[in-house]
Design goal:
Elements lengths: L11 E3 L22 H12 L10 H14 L4 E7 L2 E8 L8 E7 L18 E2 L6 E2 L3 H20 L8 E6 L10 H5 L2 H6 L1 E5 L18 E10 L3 E2 L8 H24 L10 E9 L2 E2 L2 E2 L3 E2 L2 E10 L5 H12 L6 E9 L11 E7 L2
Parallel strand pairs: 1-8, 4-7, 4-8
Antiparallel strand pairs: 2-3, 3-7, 5-6, 9-15, 9-16, 10-14, 11-15, 12-13, 16-17
The structure holds zinc ion.
The site of zinc ion (ZN) has 6 residues, from helix 3.
Family: Belongs to the peptidase M20A family.
Organism: Linum tenue
EC number: 3.5.1.14
Amino acid sequence: MATPIKPTSHTLLCFCCFLLLFTIPPPSVAAGDSSSPSQVISRFQQYLQINTAQPTPDYHLAAEFLISQADSISLPSRSIEFVHGKPLVLIHWPGSDPDLPSILLYSHTDVVPAEPHKWDHPPFSAHLDPSSGRIFARGSQDMKCVGMQYLEAVRRLKASGFRPRRSVYLAFSPDEEIGGHDGAEKFAYSDVFDALNVGIVLDEGLASPGDSYRPFYAERSPWWLVIKAVGAPGHGAKLYDNSAVENLLKSIESIRRFRASQFDLVKAGLRAEGEVISVNMAFLKAGTPSPTGFVMNLQPSEAEAGFDIRIPPTADPESLERRINEEWAPVSRNMTFQVMMLSLLAPMNGDRLIANKVRRREQ
Ligand SMILES: [Zn+2]
């Protein structure tokens, strides 16, 4: 979700759901006008119909489409391949005072894979349900809607005769869903980026089902936690304390209660989704394999579970570490853990965009 941007003295990194389209009073439009709602929807559908799903996205078709959009509003554009076959499209709306730091509107063209048989409509059909107004397409939220909103906002502003003081750039990068190393990362460290004199970047945020949008200026940090319990193996018919599965289940119950307490704050409207710590189970591993599945009359000696945790900048990471140590993987229940802390922000020396820190307690 995050775009790595090289920090400079004049770069303010801003993660934001940028929906300028809806903040501009709509000009009166005649039917058939390129700004009419049906034309806007049709262009959005065209973008959605380009299959840019990882691992085999059609980057070039997406780039061609975006360049055709820039052409249609008479804006200069270029397709830059920092890595062969992975074009980043850069569109330029020159400002009246080009010496001022510019505005960069960022989005990515690739989308995560889809399983077509689980969809009501094919994921790249961009089917529009006339009764609900919903469009069914992979990437409609993450984040082709935002890319098109940038373009449509510029289209409307240009049509109204507005000219920005600062130059505005629109960047459409490839490969964000697989790390962004060949697109946004190379762009952020390039002379091309330096020459843009970027003052602020608007990136992706959360989709909104209504007409109000929240701006965000930070990113949650992912922690990937694996907890493991060990215990004496025993017969499936026997009740005894401290089996691995029993100890792991106690931890899972504790984690589940914590998750519910965080989620309750969101449900009660006291916190936004990005302001609480989210915890979701990623895997559960236990059991003694047999040729037909698992041995059913044996309590296993090891059990393990993995969790994806997201921590907002406002949370206290030390108290969460304590919680992991004392409640989720306590020594008293024969438990160990490993937590991989992933940092999405570039350190100031700039040579690593994702810094990994690992904490573990082994027996
Ligand atoms: Zn995204």
